[in-house]
């Protein structure tokens, strides 16, 4: 975590094992490894915003596999 960041506000800071559990449980809309670290978008956050009638715009990093 960088100075000034707050868990659950700026990002969700979880262990590698927790993140892998999220992947296995389908709790992420997308995920990738960026500079050796997992990054992803939790499905629950997006679904909650849509349920409130809030528009959701996501900026995704598209990665190709060889």
UniProtKB/TrEMBL annotation:
According to the lineage, what is the superkingdom?
Answer: Eukaryota
- Keywords in alphabetical order, please: Kinase, Transferase
Is the keyword Transferase in the record? yes
Task: Please give the GO cellular component terms listed in this UniProt entry.
Answer: cytosol
Pfam families the UniProt entry points to:
Guanylate_kin
Q: Which residues form the signal peptide?
A: none
The family database entries (Gene3D superfamilies) matched by this protein are listed as: P-loop containing nucleotide triphosphate hydrolases (3.40.50.300)
Xref: SUPFAM superfamilies: P-loop containing nucleoside triphosphate hydrolases
Domain Guanylate kinase-like span(s) in chain numbering: 1-66
Q: EC? A: 2.7.4.8
Q: Name any one GO molecular function.
A: GMP kinase activity
Give the first-level EC class, as a single word.
Answer: transferase
For this protein, the record's InterPro entries field holds: GK/Ca_channel_bsu, Guanylate_kin-like_dom, P-loop_NTPase
Please verify whether the record's keywords include tRNA-binding.
no
PANTHER family, per this entry?
GUANYLATE KINASE, GUANYLATE KINASE-RELATED
Q: To which protein family does this belong?
A: Belongs to the guanylate kinase family.
Q: Any idea what this protein is called?
A: Guanylate kinase
Q: What is the lineage of its organism?
A: Eukaryota, Viridiplantae, Chlorophyta, core chlorophytes, Chlorophyceae
């Amino acid at each position: 975590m960088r100075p000034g960041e707050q868990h659950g506000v700026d990002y969700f800071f979880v262990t590698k094992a927790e993140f892998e559990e999220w992947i296995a449980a389908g709790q992420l809309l997308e995920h990738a490894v960026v500079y050796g670290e997992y990054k992803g978008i939790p499905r629950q956050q997006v679904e909650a915003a849509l349920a409130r009638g809030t528009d959701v715009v996501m900026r995704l990093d598209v990665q190709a596999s060889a």
